[in-house]
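Long-time lurker, finally posting.

We've been working with Flagellar motor switch protein FliM (Dethiosulfovibrio marinus) and I want a structural starting point before designing mutants. I don't trust myself to interpret raw outputs, so I'm hoping someone here can both generate the structure tokens and explain anything notable. Sequence follows.
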Amino acid sequence: MTPDVLSQSEIDSLLDVLTSGEVDFEEISQASAEKNVKGYDFRRPDKFSKDQLRAIQMIHESFSRQLTTSLSTMVRSIVTCEVASVDQVAYEEFVRSMVQPTVMGVLEMYPLEGNAVVEMNPNLVFAIIDRLLGGKGEVFGKPRDLTDIESTVIERVFMRMLELLEDSWSTVIDVRFRFESMESNPFFVQICPGTDMVLLVTLRVSIGDVEGMVSLCIPYFVMEPVMDKLSSQIWFASTGKNKDQDHRGFLTASLGTVKVPVHLELGDTVLSLFDVMRLRVGDVIRLDSMLDDPVMVRVGSRIKFTGRPGTVDGRYSVEVIEVADDGSSEEEEE
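Top reply, 14 upvotes:
Generated this for you. Predicted structure of Flagellar motor switch protein FliM:
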């Protein structure tokens, strides 16, 4: 790009303005310096690039959509979930930002070494528990420690969330989340030194009239071995590929459970209506096929196999001996 060149008249005008004192040269230099200088806190070094944070946000946007559907089914209420922020902070700041008591689940991320933490706002926790136990999802009183029954109930919710997290992270990294323990005091959970940087993903969740935050905290040293896989390009490429694979597997699994009618045709004959009306129990209808002739196996409206009739363990059965040619399959009679 060619730089702009001042003409002689423009240079003279600029010198006149500076000489007259209408413009302070030091103020111009200071403003220019302030614009080009960016502050940096060495106590909080940036560990994750913007592209990596963007990929992490897209992963958890997918997770939030799945969590919306799953929680709505569990609590039988209107649930909304969205990513509020994706940031990198010191672990000490994350701990000090939480209320006490709270609900924290300590997680293991196999095959990565180290632990992560998922924290859920107490108001949200008690609303979920109330809904799951047949209530209206209301919050009563101040936050308190969970009882044994309440801990068991909310642990099931955490387990379901981890399944959805695994599915969302699988588009980039194959990670298995395992629930280890639950704590109410954030200062008792030390997954890393307080000055270490952590990845903090915050979700805003609302169940009916109750709104709260769900936070996922992962130390940087846990994510470091897979940092090269965290990019928006890899996420987009993996999402497209996995989407086709997931759809194929989903359709295959769905079709595998569909029930279809199967009929065996031992033969056929033609009877008059008068003969049909005269049929009684024990009468014999003579067919146009011989005893050794193969029987036709009709699936739905088409003949798909030929077989040999017989019995197995006292039950009538047929042995498939040949797959019928699609081109020679009989059409459904009109």
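Before you design anything, note these points.
DSSP finds nine helices and ten strands in the chain.
Confidence is low (pLDDT under 50) at residues 328-334.
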